[in-house]
Amino acid sequence: MAATALNPVHAAPAGARNIVLVHGGFVDGSGWQGVYNILKKDGYNVSIVQNPTTSLADDVAVTRRTIARQDGPVVLVGHSYGGVVVSEAGTDTKVKAVVYIAAFAPDKGESVSSLIANPPAGAPVPPILAPVDGFLFLDKASFAASFAADVDAAAASFMADAQVPWGVEALTGTVTEPAWKSKPSYYLVAADDRMIPPPAQRKMAERAGSTVVETAGSHAVYVSRPQAVANLIKQAATAE
């Protein structure tokens, strides 16, 4: 088939060509659109997981079904709480590597709840409201400053108003055997993150033995700096 302006043809990338993107809490998969567009343009097959964020088990099940639909090796990518999901789901035999984007990278028996239980002195406190019916939201008035400080103001406002309820059961779900112990891992540290403190990100990345890239960016770095995120994913996909 010939390439046209509306239907470009790209050579298949070397290495893993299947990328699976997993979002975190309070948001849905639409935030990956910038990263998706870059990777698709570069010839990758990209799938977006839409987690219900009701429990870790439910989110892992949805992610594993997405992995199962792929026709070859997979690079599995998680943002924020999505890092817990990919740590658990990434042991799948199709997964070549796991990529953490300003994400939690838990060890066996750890959860979001345990990882945030003892924040370092002076660390920003995420504006998480008290749970209602077992679900959490961020305070809308503080959403942009805490989650998306470098995102266009209108887009950040939309993200705040379009929040997905995050189940308390998802926060307390524990990992049984983290993928980073058996698969190559990559970690993008967002240096201006006010949800997961950058020192905590660096510590988790070091523990996992990840290849680390650090960039300026808020917790929503996957939205504000899609090229930096896509570059690390492509590095993971093409590594020998």
From TrEMBL:
Record-linked InterPro entries: AB_hydrolase_1, AB_hydrolase_fold, Sec-Metab_Biosynth_Hydrolase
GO molecular function: hydrolase activity
Domain of life: Bacteria
Keyword Hydrolase: yes
Keywords: Hydrolase
The protein's name: Alpha/beta hydrolase
Record carries keyword Hydrolase: yes
Natural source organism: Phyllobacterium brassicacearum
Domain AB hydrolase-1: residue ranges: 19-231
